[in-house]
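Student: I would love a firmer grasp of how sequence relates to backbone shape in proteins. Thank you; the sequence and its tokens follow:
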Amino acid sequence: MDPHYNAILLGKDPIENEILVNSLNNYISVDQYNGETEYRHQEGQAEPDLFIIHKQLAKGDGVTTCESIRKELNYNNASILMVLDSDSVYHKIKCYEAGADDYIVQPYHPEELIRKVKRLSNSSIQKKNQSLLTETATNDALDATKTAFEAMRATSDLGVVIKFMANCQASTSLEAIALQLCIATSSLDVTCIVQIHDNEAFHTFNQNNDVRQIEAQLLQESKNKGRIVEEDNLIIINFELLSLLVTDMPTDTNLHGRIKDTLVHVTGAAEIRIRSIMVNEILHAQGRETISVINLIRQVAADNHKHATQIMTNLTEKVEESAISLSLTEEQEDHFINLSQNAHKELDTLYKGSEILESHFMRVILGVQKAIKMHEGKN
């Protein structure tokens, strides 16, 4: 037998214990104790291969001790051999019911004891090996399950990001983007409050439109405290135009980290879309204002042209009348009339030139508007 096998002997008296130990010296290492209490006082005890317990202990009852070893110490791999003083069927049954694997009746032959000890020790080792294999298989299964769940969670988180990106790009208002952020965080089993900064104003949203003043104030005060602010189950993610607050982050470190990464991704995407909407609104506003200015210039130019034409017509008529009354020669009259008509033509040419310039400018504005619409279509 392997000399590294070990047994615990809880015997009846020192003389009997010595006889038993001497019988097993060449086969198994044996440690002696007077009873269960003394054995339990030895801290850091590993589960032995075999317990040899006398039914009538010097201190305590062997059957009760056997039952305690199985139920309280939870030693289910170690074998238990009970030593009986009589061949009573009742005592044998009580031993088996308490969890014993076998028994031996005194007086016994040493060879009988050795054979039982060998068989029970081997059985214990087999059970321990099987238990180790089972534990290893169970741990492997648990690890595989954990890995599978983590992969599923990661896939789920990726799905949240992809779905949010599509819905965010389809959103055309700041409120719609805030709503999509609330829906995305809800898919992660957390709730959020969104604050958007628009021209020095703060617009705060949540999924139920019941944001408390203290929550809005917290977001404003945390705006300049860095990209990510964390405390216990609270996290705030800050971008230039957008801040997001979550107050019910999970306590599990891995889950907390995954959700945090996902929140940063969706908040960053929302920031880009918000900026795009704001730029489009500015371009549209400037385009509308420019067209209004052009229309005003056109109207003023038309009025000026009309007024100037009327002045030149009146001036031409007066020049012609003056030329006749001054008794000028025909050549002089023609000269004055030509000067008046040429001035009139130059005024028309000037006005037509302004119309051409205005037409070119309008084409530029229309081209900008077309580019804005194409940009919106891509987004």
